[in-house]
Please model this.
Amino acid sequence: MKKLKALVTALVSAGCVLATAPAKAELSPNVVVDGVYEGIQHIHGYQATPKLVWNVSRGQRGGCGVIPGSHYCKLNHTVYITQQDIRMAYQHGDAALAYIVAHEYAHAMQIAHRFMPRTITASELQADCLAGIYLGAIPNLTFDQRDIQEIATFAYRIGDYASWSQHHHGTPAQRVKAVAVGMKASVNGKGLQGLSACRAY
Model:
């Protein structure tokens, strides 16, 4: 718990400059998904925009076969967000869902702009970093400390320690740090100018 608290504190510090509005009531999933998706499209000048299919169930079929969870499918350039992941995100808060959407959109941009890292772990951590960039750069989107804590605790939760697996997505600490790096770079680099911070992954 001490480690998690320190990581949350680090992410709050990285994103505190974004916290310019008082805490708000939780937004509904459709408002979060639509707002974040529209915001990232705007950031990218509405180029290479992936299709969005959300509120689907795991086990349904998508462009890449059976949907195992929220993911980006490069075969049909589509982002899928599952009902199960939406529910899990809201155990932390609406900002956690914003992070999921930004993370999956990041995977689409890795493919579209050809800067996909060689390993799955590096790709996932880079997508976390890019998600931090996006969340910090979306116009008219602000975060208070509660929002940032929601993102941090969710990123920590979905980390794993299976470093031996080719599907290893990064440890809890690595995932929180990657989002923090992105948020900090978004602030210091004024939006997408901070993208170079994510190329290290």
About this structure: The first strand starts at residue 51 and ends at 56. The chain has seven helices and five strands. Confidence is low (pLDDT under 50) at residues 14-23. Helices lie at 2-15, 29-43, 83-89, 94-112, 120-137, 145-157, 172-188.
